[in-house]
Amino acid sequence: MAAGGDGVAQQAELRRIEGNACFKKARLGAAIDCYTEAIALCPNVAVYWMNRALCHFRRKEWAKVEADSRRALALDATLVKGHYLLGCALLDKEEFSLAIKEFEKALNLLKSENSTDKMAEDVWQVLAKAKYLDWEKHSTERVWRIQSLKEACESALQEHHFLSDTLVEDSDGSSNEYSEQIKLLSEVFIKATLADTPVDVPDYLCCQITFEIFRDPVITPSGVTYERAVLLEHLDKVGNFDPVTREPLKEHQLVPNLAIKEAVQAYLKEHSWAYKLNC
């Protein structure tokens, strides 16, 4: 029985290898067929579902991406690409909050693995997009609710003063209590609207090279803060010196700027629209 099981597993693995070869040649249909055969032989192997999901991802067949990535994650919840692909499928469905959760799971897994590969950048990009779109969606709803509430408050205030016979101006032409309350009410709602209105992000929260809001800020001995990935690329391709001060600089001299990182996180929590700078 065990020998027969081993034979089935070997056949499934051969189908996977063949599927990988087809995938590399962009023969996605053939790759899907191979992975489907592997799944039929060994349905409890997460990587087979994951590989087929990647094929569907290339084809932008989002319903199939969601189905296969969910099956893969049910078998192995530590699959970074599984959470990434599921998040992309949910993003296409405009289920932004659910997509954000999947992307954050992927980033947390990468962090626990101390990964610095391109996958982390890819996940961050779609996470930023999801958070901005989620803000945009809810911002429109908030503006409508604020306007409706403002109109209701004005109507209630007007009715109150009408019944109290205090709508008219004072005899000396000065504003009465009703006018002052309407003015104050307007100021309150203007502030509420402005709190959710995009403005320029403070310069100290943005990299001097990319002008994007920081994600992983590091500070040089010269006291200048940069985005780590961008500065490392500069050191590798341009030269071992600080881009601004031109002072000699090596990678081991970089120190995480935790204060700026915390400030960025606090700012993004209050101003989700700022994620647009990074997506």
TrEMBL record:
InterPro entries from the entry? CHIP_RING-Ubox, TPR-like_helical_dom_sf, TPR_rpt, Ubox_domain, Znf_RING/FYVE/PHD
GO MF annotations, alphabetized? transferase activity
Q: Its GO biological process terms?
A: protein ubiquitination
Q: Can you say where the TPR repeats lie in this chain? A: 80-113
Alphabetical UniProt keywords: TPR repeat, Transferase
Q: Keyword Transferase: yes or no?
A: yes
Q: Does the keyword Transferase apply?
A: yes
Associated pathway: Protein modification; protein ubiquitination
| Stated name of the protein | E3 ubiquitin-protein ligase CHIP
Q: Which organism is it from?
A: Urochloa decumbens
Name of one Pfam family that matches:
U-box
Could you tell me which Gene3D superfamilies the record lists for this protein?
Tetratricopeptide repeat domain, Zinc/RING finger domain, C3HC4 (zinc finger)
Superkingdom as given in the UniProt entry = Eukaryota
The record's listing under PANTHER family reads: E3 UBIQUITIN-PROTEIN LIGASE CHIP, U-BOX DOMAIN-CONTAINING PROTEIN
All copies of domain U-box, residue ranges: 200-274
